[in-house]
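Fold it.
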Amino acid sequence: MKPYFIIAFLCIFTNCKSQNTLTMNTIYDYKVKDINGNDFDFAALKGKKILIVNTASKCGFTPQFEGLEALYQKYKSSGFVVIGFPSNDFGQQDPGSNEEIAEFSQLNYGVSFPMMSKIHVTGDEMAPIYQFLTQKELNGKKSSSVKWNFQKYIINEDGTLEDYFYSVTKPESSKITKWIEKQS
């Protein structure tokens, strides 16, 4: 048998896919590290509405932590969660360690929603979770680019991307609260 035929035959029977054709359509396919270095599996959030936001401690939008925490507190018992991803990608506005970021956000804004380890949300080192959020080929909905700190992505209860909002959209915006309150 020819080598390429054997490879094709093996792929058919082992269900292998090339990296270029693999499509993940829900957030539940992703695992990340939380701010303490522990594994965080998005599959644990099945059935919840999720707002994902890239955060920074030294940004003009940093006070949005307060609105994000208020939103989380108001709706967490209704199946809603905020997930924060610190990033130093814009203007070097989050240069601290994970420990420093956790302490800052908790002490200054009372953040109790889940915070993840610092990641890249742009460029060649973009974290896989942000590749999913920004690439239609992975999320099945739309492509985008992260323009600045505190850009928000909303994920439906089925793990699919619904939409995104730039930094200027405040957490308490009616666009976000209406989405949270909307019944599936």
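Confidence is low (pLDDT under 50) at residues 3-22.
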